[in-house]
Write a structure and sequence with these properties.
With 308 residues, this protein is mainly α. 66% of the residues lie in helices and 0% in strands.
Amino acid sequence: MLGDSAKAGLFSAQIPANDALATLWPLARDAEPAVADSMVSLLGLLRDELVGADLRPAVMDRVRVSFQPILAELGMKPASGAEDWRATERRAVALRQLALGAEDRATRRELARLGVAYLGLGTDDELHPEAVAPNLVELCLVLAVREKGATVFDRLVSKLATEQNPLERSRYLAAIAAAVDPPLSARALALSLDPRVGGSEVFPLIHTQLSQADTRQAAWLWLKQNIEPVSARLPQIERSWLPLSGDAIVRRARRAGRQDVLRGPAPRLQGGERSLAQTLEWIRWCVAVTAAQRDSARAFFAGPPRGR
């Protein structure tokens, strides 16, 4: 209740972001995952959107300080014997935040190593499920792609031709979609038109590329140029979702007074106009929250540490 109330106050601008974050930040270390999520769910927004690029390192430092003790407490893998599910989930959250939120080099290297071991790259090229905890496989594969590049990317793409297990396919596609290196990002987008990717797998692939700060602009330009073949591959129910994927692009365009960036493809998609209207409404809210809270949020990270 405390976390939900603090977030509601932040997003309604009834509580200054500085005070709301000081209340929320300690919750990230709570042993109950549902409580910790009150803060964890905000970290991407804070790092990539709300405080500005110049304070991004300060957010990353605070994330590192907050989650390293959790990993030190739990270790990279469970001790012998059964482990409480809360500890398992907290470890996964800590590793994800350290690797992706704080971009901690040591954590990224270790997770990438585990991802390579899972794929059996450089050894027998067979899957090794024993190498990685099930709830960490996707994260390890994502880091393997980002740290090892084309070698892992190519291996995952090749496995799509024969892999029938839906869980494994979703893991491979999530890692492929997470590529940020420009040549690999372009290949990930092109893969959405490849017959090795099923129609129901297309939208998550494109949406991930549109959601990442490092790839969203190029991904949106690609989507606008390929809207017809992409739409043809999507299940009917998913075609109207494409305008929803452009929210981050429109958010920036709106600041420049260009609100029509999504209007080209939307009318050509069944349900697209409605999705576009919902997206623009959501963006107006995001812009209002940012305008109301950015200075206060910046003060939280620029000043002496609070809410540790």
